[in-house]
Amino acid sequence: MLVSGWGLLCMFLSLTESGWSLEVSDPKEVIWLQSTDDALTGSAAALWCSGPALSECAAYDEIPVTDGDTVDVMRLNSDFRLCCEKERECVLCLVIDATLYIPPDKDQESDGQSGADEEYPNEENDKESFRVCYKDTASIGTCKKVEFNLKDLIPGNHTEISMVISHNGGFPFGLRLDVTAKGFSQAVTAPSLQEVCSQKKLQKYLKSCQGPSVTHVINHTMNWMELLVDGEREDLPSLCVQYEREGICQRMKETTIPLQSLAPCMCFQAWYEEERESMRTLYCPFVDEGFPQELQENVRRNLTVDVHLRQVKDQKTMLFWNLSAPCRLKGEVRLCSESSCSKTHTDTEQLSVQNWEQTEMQLWKLEGMFPNVEGTWNTSFCIQIQIEGKWQESICTNKPGRWRWSLLVVGSMLLISLTAFMIYFFHDFIKKWVQSYHRGKFVPIALQLKKGHVVLVSPPKVDDGVSESVRQLGSLLSQQGFSVAVDHWSRTEQGILGPLPWLHSQMLKVESVGGRCVLILTQETKERTQDWSLSNVDGNGPDQARCPYSDLFYATLFLIQRHKLQNTASERFTLVTLESNLTQDNLPELLHKLPLFHYPSQTGALMADLTSQRKKSVRMWAWPRWRTQDFQDNV
């Protein structure tokens, strides 16, 4: 993370040989680099160093394997900071703080040669030096030899040194480095771009942190708050809403929010969807400006309170309560009775922000209890909540006695309603049963099924238009009271039973309850019927290699042929055509004399035909046993 209290570099540092200078105006923000000569180019790295007891501090590239340190390193601390230069974007640089120990013999040697220094001021023997290295996992590392002269220093004392390492392009965000110096080693990780941009004071220094700008306007006329998003891009950014900064952010499809849904802790995030590294703008409209006074009622209205009693194993009664609200509330909960809720002689519990938990519905939930409440199960206990210094209305538990009476009344009403419904529905049955009872014997009473069973069979291959028409016809028959089976709707059942057993079961139902097998007549139906008739012209029919049982459609043709031999085909099969050019005159021989209706123009005639020929199943009850009879209803 970025250095926040870097006091030693709160000064002006310079390195005249390179034409660069370093200035730290605010240790909590950035380091400013000022170039007085050519700017740093390529991948070259520059190092600035300074200390209270140092002078002429300079740094040079060093081979990692060399060793020539003249001072000892007692402490090493490294971190990353933002380094900025005018007309350039800020980058990350490495900051290293170290505590150096000058051995006494070195200091004495330095004092003994002070006279020689005056005669030979450019002598390099007097400079102290040590080496600092840094490397990541993908490189062999970089080392810098730091040289400096000592000012007045007490022998055996310590001195501090601070270094800033920067290179063109800066260190990558999220980079992990190992920094070593004279036996000391420290691992340091650069902050991610998100971590840097999350600090408001640093956002202005990085263009990558400049996400979409979000503002709002409250429209009392329309009863909503509208979000205004402004960015440098033409495409609209994505939005999400969250309650509290730590809350779950849920995507928004609209930019307007009803006023009654607003909450003081409401925040919004805006970002560009297609950019993986796009920074999100966090906008909390009511954190700084405050929640509008006219919307304060939302806090109370959106608060949900649940109170209930529970008896534990030791027969003690405990009062449990839980609160749910869009925001975490601060306040107080106190226990009181239904008659009074005074503050004296009552148990209280503070509402702590840390104890709230957010649910999947984005609501914050807090649970609590008051143990060992005194009273019986008929006693109504209450709690009162204080929010922002104001006590809300009491919320009480319901008395169990009231619940018992309520359940009794509701149960009685349901029983009476059910009895009335049965009397109305079975009125005729009950009337006949009573009449038979007065006559001294029980008369068989019949409950008849009003409609029959219809099987819709289509050719194997149909287009979307035919499928839609068949669906409409099946739905219409169902609405008219028929039980309907459509071959295209029953593919799963056919896969389990097989197409032929399925058709056989459907025809048995037609025989038992009455009804028809309706064949959908199309041009394909006509062609397949002609081909099938030609393949059976020799009379072998099912014994041929092309058996009519090969699929459900040919099985239906086979059944039509069998019923024609018995002169009952017109009673069990009906043709429904969806094409106006198909008439009785151009039908194959097998389909002649079968009832033919055009759908939807002859829907009424079709319904009348299906109704007039239905067969009803009649159940006859007689005391003390019942039996079932089937008869043909001639309407």
Structure commentary:
This protein has 15 helices and 36 strands. The protein has 635 residues and is an alpha+beta fold. Strand 6 (72-85) and strand 7 form a beta hairpin. Helix 10 crosses helix 11. The longest helix has 26 residues, at 400-425. The radius of gyration is 46 Å and the shape is elongated.
Quick summary:
One of its GO terms (biological process) is inflammatory response. The protein has 635 residues and is an alpha+beta fold.
CATH topology of the largest domain: Immunoglobulin-like
**Which CATH architecture of the largest domain?**
Sandwich
Could you list the spans in which at least 5 consecutive residues all have pLDDT below 50? 3-27, 36-43, 112-124, 441-449, 541-550, 615-635
Helix/strand structural class: alpha+beta
CATH uppermost class of the largest domain: Mainly Beta
Query: Radius of gyration over alpha carbons?
Result: 46 Å
- In DSSP terms (H or I, runs of 4 or more residues), the helix count works out at 15
In percent terms, what proportion of residues is strand?
25-35%
- Main sheet, how many strands, which sense, barrel? 7 strands, mixed
Domain SEFIR: 468-610
GO cellular component, one term: plasma membrane
Domain Interleukin-17 receptor C/E N-terminal: 82-396
Keywords: Cell membrane, Glycoprotein, Inflammatory response, Membrane, Receptor, Signal, Transmembrane, Transmembrane helix
Topology:
Layout (H helix, E strand, L loop, with lengths): L11 E4 L4 E4 L7 E5 L9 E6 L3 E9 L9 E14 L5 E11 L2 H9 L1 H6 L8 E8 L6 E9 L7 E10 L8 E6 L2 E6 L3 H5 L2 H4 L9 E7 L4 E7 L7 E6 L6 E2 L4 E3 L7 E6 L9 E3 L1 H5 L7 H5 L2 E8 L5 E9 L5 E7 L10 E4 L5 E2 L5 E7 L10 E7 L2 E2 L3 E2 L3 H26 L1 H12 L6 E4 L4 E5 L6 H16 L3 E4 L4 H7 L1 H15 L1 E7 L1 H13 L16 H14 L3 H4 E5 L18 E3 L4 H10 L3 E7 L2 E7 L4
Parallel strand pairs: 3-6, 30-31, 30-32, 32-33, 33-34
Antiparallel strand pairs: 1-2, 2-3, 4-10, 5-9, 6-7, 7-10, 8-9, 8-11, 11-12, 13-14, 14-17, 15-16, 15-18, 18-19, 20-21, 21-25, 22-23, 22-26, 24-25, 26-27, 26-28, 29-35, 35-36
Helix pairs in contact: 10-11
